[in-house]
User: Fold this.
Amino acid sequence: QDVANGKIHIFEESKGIEMARYDMEQSNGAVDVVAAMFCQSQRWYLRIIDEPAQQGNHFMDVLPLIAEVVRVFNPSAPKRQKVAFAMDKVTCWTSQGSLTR
Assistant:
């Protein structure tokens, strides 16, 4: 489901110290790259990424966009990203009392 009036909050060390707040774009897309953190001259920076959200269900659906963003900060990065994740199947207990996997 789309987020209404979504915001990105940047905190320093705890929820009590908010450094910045950014409005998220209103879109019909389901997956998006919204920001990138990078280190330059031993300082960390945050850059808001203003790209339209795309259709999909998982961050894997925006890997081409992630690769483009990575190449902004590291032009020698490969155009095609190869990723692998170890995932475990999880057993869940639903409110109806059935066990699902």
Summary: The beta strands are 7-11, 18-23, 35-40, 43-48, 92-93, 99-100.
